[in-house]
Amino acid sequence: MSIIKDFLFQLTLVVIPIFIYYTFITEKVKSQKNKNIIMTILWGISIIFCMSFPVNFGDNSRLELRIIPLLLGTLYGGFWPGIFLSVIIILFRLSFGISIGFYNTVLVLLTSLPFILFFQKSFSLSKKDKRVKIAVSLSLFYCLSGLTIFCILRGFSFDFFKIQMVHLFLAVVVTWLFTILIEKIR
Predict the structure, then answer these.
(1) Which of 23, 78, 88, 135 is the most buried (most CB within 10 A)?
(2) Which residues constitute the signal peptide according to the record (predicted)?
(3) Which three-class secondary structure string do you get for the chain?
């Protein structure tokens, strides 16, 4: 139950930037470029918060919902915000030291980010329903990449697999909900 509680706390950390942006920023800032910069910074803060309060399990294993701010920041912000958010993830993860977790993070980003960046253009040109499908598919791909690389680097464990499945489920469902929410607000 504490794993679910930790994930729900991270969910709150992801909601805060969206709330701040749409409540305080959109009305006051007129330039789309400035809005994009502010949103990227808010997504970066969300990533740092998610990574600061991970779900810890097993032998120094940790999970967090950083995929959601990374994915939404890249899909709605574009190429450079996606690169910037990825660099934040790598540098912040590096601050915990070079370990198998750091390698896992880098490999998952190297595997997933090209796909996210590739689909960003079609995402921005798509209608709302297709945007939701693209975001959910990319979230699923990111989580499955993370699960696969985790199993390759650490070996398969049924206990870790269960936690990874909870992570996958939450990441996909929350991506779906947030994408629908953002699309309704926009």
Answers:
(1) 135
(2) none
(3) CHHHHHHHHHHHHHHHHHHHHHHHHHHHCCCHHHHHHHHHHHHHHHHHHHHHCCEEECCCEEECCCHHHHHHHHHHHCHHHHHHHHHHHHHHHHCCCCCHHHHHHHHHHHHHHHHHHHHHHHHHHCCHHHHHHHHHHHHHHHHHHHHHHHHHHHCCCHHHHHHHHHHHHHHHHHHHHHHHHHHHHC
- Write the single-letter amino acid at 33: K
Instruction: Please tell me the pTM assigned to this model.
Output: 0.91
pLDDT band, residue 59 (cuts 50/70/90): low
Number of domains comprising the chain: 1
What tokens does 37 get?
């910069």
Structural domain range at position 181: 2-185
Average pLDDT over residues 52-70: 81
C-alpha–C-alpha distance, residues 47 and 176, integer Å = 18
